[in-house]
């Protein structure tokens, strides 16, 4: 976390009232997008009962949203440059509201999953296009002030999502998790028409459609292959073909990027050592990190009998400890460097994840709360260190492209995290039995597996140069 926190009241110092309102529109859009990435976690068992599904097979609701965001994010900036920021931002809000309505109306799990794809397509464009509109509208001397204000709601959304989702589900119904987006989205769309300029980039070149297609196919095929056996019921041969197809598409992109004059993501990025290590570390370490917000509320409700609200409240120590440890992360990195902090902390995070295999009705509540708080603290340090090590050496033409690629990989890893956790749960549950009281051992085994995956990813960070000591203070804090 930076040593100086951006002021929350930044818009009040801006002279033009229309610009202040535009900032609020962008900030609220970012808040909705990040909120919906976590708000459904505590509502999954209620959704399952309503739709006649097993709560252990509801991961597609989360996967569809995050995977769609990973696929759509790379094209959002080009669309805004080509058609105008206001046009694309309005389109994003429209898709998000339409997806929310369809989610609330969904009569079956496949319908709900498809609706989350629509919602994710809109959500994927809200942040990058909104941020681009700020950069195109505000003078350079006001960039930091404006972007800091826009970023604050985006950081709050994922933090309050599980608790808010639990409260809404228990007080009303899970449908209102999506319906609350509708009036906010309509108001945002109307405000966008009046207050957001339709900034375009003259003379924009052609979009790298071939490169985009290769990457999109690789991401979707990989996610489907991981969820194929357990969630989708694919045969082994189908899963193998999907894995081969994913690797082939990724290889095809590499060859394409070498020949293309303007590839979607230049291969020069991978010549930057810290970026390459940070990108791979984000991909694999987040498979464990991203699984926990899905697994913890599900365990508490399905196996321990917690209500949605109580399960959401149990996530508060994770949030509070995570926020409190931000400054600790900065000091640790400044004192010990990225390599030592990331190697040690990644291993510790994995051990803490595996320790949730001890959770049971016999464990005192106080111990579980401490366990959750400690996980929140080390997990927050992990996010801060991983994000900044990937971005710290970028500059010039690589900064924008590298940041976009990192964001895409983060969203992909969230999808793979829930996909992997759901597949592990289904596999262990099939081996243990299908009775309700036997679900806890399946959760225990899954916690151990995701913990081992995370600890093993510490090897990636060992590849960082131990001689580098000129670390900079972390600047990127969004725990995407």
From TrEMBL:
GO terms for molecular function: transmembrane transporter activity. One of its GO terms (cellular component) is plasma membrane. Residues 22-469 form the Major facilitator superfamily (MFS) profile domain. The chain crosses the membrane at residues 21-40, 60-80, 87-107, 113-134, 146-168, 174-195, 207-226, 232-255, 267-285, 305-325, 337-359, 405-430, 442-461. It is found in: Cell membrane. Keywords: Cell membrane, Membrane, Transmembrane, Transmembrane helix, Transport. It is a multi-pass membrane protein. It comes from the Bacteria. Pfam families: MFS_1. The keyword Transmembrane applies. The keyword Membrane applies. CDD domains: MFS_LmrB_MDR_like. InterPro entries: EmrB-like (IPR004638), MFS (IPR011701), MFS_dom (IPR020846), MFS_trans_sf (IPR036259). PANTHER family: BLR6921 PROTEIN, MAJOR FACILITATOR SUPERFAMILY MULTIDRUG TRANSPORTER MFSC. NCBIfam families: efflux_EmrB, PRK10504.1. This is EmrB/QacA subfamily drug resistance transporter. It comes from Cupriavidus agavae.
């Amino acid at each position: 976390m930076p040593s100086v926190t951006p002021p929350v009241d930044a818009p009040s110092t801006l002279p033009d009232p229309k610009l202040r309102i535009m900032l609020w529109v962008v900030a609220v859009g970012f808040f909705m997008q990040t909120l919906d990435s976590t708000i459904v976690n505590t509502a999954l068992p209620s959704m399952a009962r309503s739709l006649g599904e097993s709560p252990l097979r509801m991961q597609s609701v989360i996967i569809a949203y995050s995977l769609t965001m990973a696929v759509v994010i790379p094209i959002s900036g080009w669309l805004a440059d080509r058609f105008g920021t206001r046009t694309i931002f309005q389109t994003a809000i429209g898709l998000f509201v339409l997806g929310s309505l369809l989610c609330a109306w969904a009569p079956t799990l496949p319908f709900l999953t498809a609706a989350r794809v629509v919602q994710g397509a809109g959500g994927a464009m809200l942040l990058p296009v909104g941020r681009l509109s700020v950069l195109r509208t505000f003078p350079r001397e006001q960039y930091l002030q404006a972007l800091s204000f826009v970023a604050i709601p985006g950081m709050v959304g994922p933090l309050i999502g599980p608790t808010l989702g639990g409260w809404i589900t228990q007080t009303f119904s899970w449908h209102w998790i999506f319906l609350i987006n509708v009036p906010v989205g309509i108001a945002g769309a109307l405000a966008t028409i009046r207050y957001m300029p339709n900034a375009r980039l003259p003379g924009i070149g052609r979009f790298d459609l071939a490169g985009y297609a290769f990457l999109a196919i690789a991401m979707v095929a990989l996610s489907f292959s991981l969820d194929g056996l357990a969630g989708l019921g694919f045969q082994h041969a189908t899963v193998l073909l999907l894995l081969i197809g994913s690797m082939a598409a990724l290889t095809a992109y590499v060859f394409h990027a070498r020949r293309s004059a303007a590839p979607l993501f230049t291969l020069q990025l991978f010549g930057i050592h810290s970026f390459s290590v940070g990108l791979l570390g984000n991909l694999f370490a987040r498979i464990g990190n991203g699984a926990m917000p899905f697994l913890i509320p599900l365990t508490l409700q399905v196996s321990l009998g917690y209500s949605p609200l109580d399960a959401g409240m149990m996530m508060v120590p994770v949030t509070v400890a995570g926020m409190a440890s931000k400054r600790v992360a900065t000091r640790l990195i400044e004192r010990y460097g990225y390599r030592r902090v990331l190697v040690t902390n990644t291993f510790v995070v994995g051990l803490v994840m595996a320790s949730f295999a001890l959770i049971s009705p016999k464990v005192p509540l106080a111990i579980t709360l401490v366990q959750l708080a400690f996980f929140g603290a080390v997990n927050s340090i992990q996010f801060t260190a991983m994000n900044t090590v990937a971005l710290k050496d970028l500059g010039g033409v690589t900064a924008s492209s590298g940041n976009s690629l990192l964001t895409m990989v983060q969203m992909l890893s969230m999808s793979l995290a829930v996909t992997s956790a759901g597949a592990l749960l289904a596999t262990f549950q099939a081996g243990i039995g299908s009775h309700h009281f036997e679900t806890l051992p399946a959760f225990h085994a899954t916690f151990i597996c995701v913990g081992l995956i995370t600890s093993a990813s510490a090897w990636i960070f060992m590849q960082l140069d131990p001689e580098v000591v000129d670390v900079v203070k972390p600047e990127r804090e969004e725990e995407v």
